[in-house]
Amino acid sequence: MNTPHISVIVAVYNVQKTLRQCLESLVNQTLKEIEIICVNDGSTDLSNEIIAEYAEKDCRVKMIDLGRNCGTSVARKQGVMAASGKYIMFCDSDDEYYPNACEVVWREMEKDPVDILHFASKICAFPNAKVDLKGLKKVLQPVLQKVEGDLCKKCLQEEKWGFTLWNKAYNAEICKKAFGHVCNEYIVVSEDLYVTFLILYFSKTYRGISSRLYLYRAGEGITVWNSQVDFEKFKKLCTETKLIPCIKQFLDSVNAEKKYYTVYKKLCNRILENRIYQWMHILSAEDSWKGYQLLTEELTVPAVVGELERVSCGKFDEVVKRLTANNAMVRGGRPVKRIGAYYHRIRNGGAEKITTELLFIWKQLGYEVSLITDEPEAADDYPVPEGTKRIVIRDFRKSFNGTFAKRAKEWKYIIEKNNLDTIVYHDATSPTLLWDLCSVKGEQCNFFVVAHSMFAGITWYDPERATLMPDVYKMVDGVAVLSDTDAKFWSNYCPAYYIPNPISLTAPETVSTLKSKNILWVGRLSPEKQPEDMIKIFSLVKRQVPDATLTMLGSADIDWMEDNLQQMVDDMRLSDSVEFVDFTLDVERYYQEAAVFAFTSKCESFSMVLAESKNYGLPIVMYSLPNLELIKDGKGVYEISQNNVVKFSNTLISLLQDEVLRREEGAKSRESIEEFVKNDICERWGEVFQKLSVPLQYGDQSMTLVLDLLLSGLHEGILKLRGQQFYSSAGIAVHGEACGRHEEVLNRHEEVVNRHEEVVNRHEEVVNRHEEVVNRHEDAINHQWGIQKWHEDRISALEQRTFKGMLKKVFRKLFKK
Fold it and tell me: 89 near 9, Cβ under 8 Å?
């Protein structure tokens, strides 16, 4: 055979069902000067025999047998390098060419040569296939004009046309040059994107034609996204991730990384989004953990975690369930040597204070410690051990809606640079807990939580997320809690250890004298601390104890809170008796000057301010919190049911009016804390860190199952209630909108009636004008007739004056005679 005009490359892998149709469409092309190069990519069915059969009948069919499955991009590369045609085309083995496809391409290329000729395709969807035909048609549509310049940016950045390989014809010289850079990686997904990028880089001209030359069968093949797949199929889908290093390697080799950085990042993001979508929606749940591990290996932990955070809006529960399917995440195994303690700040709060105090204990145990915070160092920070390294990480409040990858990268950098093996995480209910957990665990680092709030605390402000927190805790290496109650709950999901907060006894001579009538309230000015109740209680106390005073020590995180509290005090005329004191590290004098301590929190797990008040020998009146270990002995404490301000105030009145009673209860309070501090906290922490190096063994999971069923039901119920509220609100909105539309219709109807009347009036005016025109027309006709009569009379007069007329006149006179 003479040198072919066109070489058609067909990569073949286990397609015996469709291969004959494909080859029939190629051997029966109207242009006979073609070659058909079939590359058998290690097929295990009858594909090889089918190719051999056609090659025997038609010398234009050539077979290359790779001997093993190397992937589509490698198979095409072998075909291209063996091609001898002036132009190169590609046909997928489950698709077909129109009979005149090669002839049209040859004629168009010879008439107006370009590096890339783009033709139209017909889409044929397989039965039951979920195919976005409208979107697919748009992607396959050629641009019907000639385009020159940087085709890479025009196609892949500006998206002027799609990157599919098979609906285009290529200059063979450029095609071979591009395929020469194709790496020999096994890639069977998005190989078109990879190869097209290389071809576009070397090409300078593109043209699209409207001729439909290709029959594309949609809904079959490796990239179908409408059915569930197992891990092995998912691994094949993930070969797309290999495009990223391959493209980067190519850009580096041609020194074009900066020029095409935007294009490269867009391709990376596309690949990442595809893989996360498939992990979320088509990978079987039992394989989701293995799939997650594969993704983090191929695409890096920060990229995967960042994308999961982005897509989790409205799907947080789905992400959590897939990450924790079958308790999949492996825990523990790394010996603890270097600890990074994290909390978003270390000022103005009990959790903040404990975070820093634990650093002293861990350092005493011989561990290297670093402090990681979102906020930089501040003047009112709690003290930390000398030489402690302070590391600032990206603020969690700026790490949502697709921006978490930046924080994840900082976690990776912090862990690697400081060689940390354990992160102790003090923000137990943080909205970024899951993402921080995945980021840290992804760096093979222990992740241990210190819970400064009780297990049910989050239900107060986010009940939906509260039902998911136990699933998140399935992934941690352990949790330190502040009550036996919390330990019993969390032990169903992870290793849980009751470890009291560190407390230092003050000297006996520093305790309060209890001689004043001052009530001390200490805490953050926030809703869960219920400072409004304290002001209501004090207003009742003031009626019975006129010389009573109230000191409220603490700052607000919410701007309006302090203003509202001050307004309450002013409205109740208590300004002279109530003092607001901003947060300060110097609290001793306030405890020493107080006569009684008031505590109005609705939810606590330990409360350092209770410990401090007992330290200074203050009797305590508080809302009941039965989970607190500090008050289980009942010494020096009066528990009042939540929000019973009358009983609370009466108890305070009794203490303020009876100094003997105050002293007795104050002494009990001090005795209670002296007994409590006998707990050996250092020893407990040492035991916990030793256990982190031992992988977790799961025991009886029966209670976990009970709790999972309960929490799952609660979660569904919350979603259902929210949906009803939404639809109820939506119904009201729709009704209101309908009323508005009805009124709008009435207004429009009235407007139409007015316009109709206007039209009728105009019609009458037109009729009148028509009559006027008719009259004028008649006048014009009469005037015309008058003119014509005048002309006839004039002619008659002129005739009489002519010579002929004179003869006629003489003749008439003679004959008359």
Answer: yes
Contacts (Cβ under 8 Å, ≥6 apart) of 605: 451, 452, 453, 454, 457, 481, 482, 483, 486, 627, 628
Neighbours of 403 (CB within 10 A): 13
Q: What is the pLDDT of residues 118-167, one digit of tens each?
A: 999 999 876 666 667 787 888 899 999 999 999 999 999 999 999 999 99
Strand arrangement of the beta sheet that strand 637-640 belongs to: 578-581, 549-553, 518-522, 596-599, 620-623, 637-640
Residues in the chain: 817
Per the listing, tokens 């899951």 go with 434
- What amino acid is encoded at 693 in this protein? S
Separation between Cα atoms, residue 236 and residue 191, nearest integer Å: 12
Which of 57, 72, 78 shows the shortest CA–CA distance to 12?
72
The CB-side HSE value for 682 (13 A sphere, CA atoms) comes to 9
3-state secondary structure 44-73: CCCHHHHHHHHHHHCCCEEEEECCCCCCHH
Strand partners, 34: 6
Distance CA 246, CA 262 (A): 16
The helix (H) or strand (E) run that includes residue 351 is helix 350-364
**Residue 7 in 3-state DSSP?**
strand
- For residue 423, give the H/E element and its range: strand 422-425
Q: Which two tokens stand for residue 299?
A: 């695409």
- In angstroms, the CA 657 to CA 669 distance is 19
Percentages of the chain per state (helix, strand, coil), in multiples of 5: 50, 15, 35
* Residues contacting 645, CB < 8 A, separation 6+: 533, 536, 537, 540
Distance CA 457, CA 610 (A): 18
Distance CA 351, CA 344 (A): 10
The pTM assigned to this predicted structure is 0.75
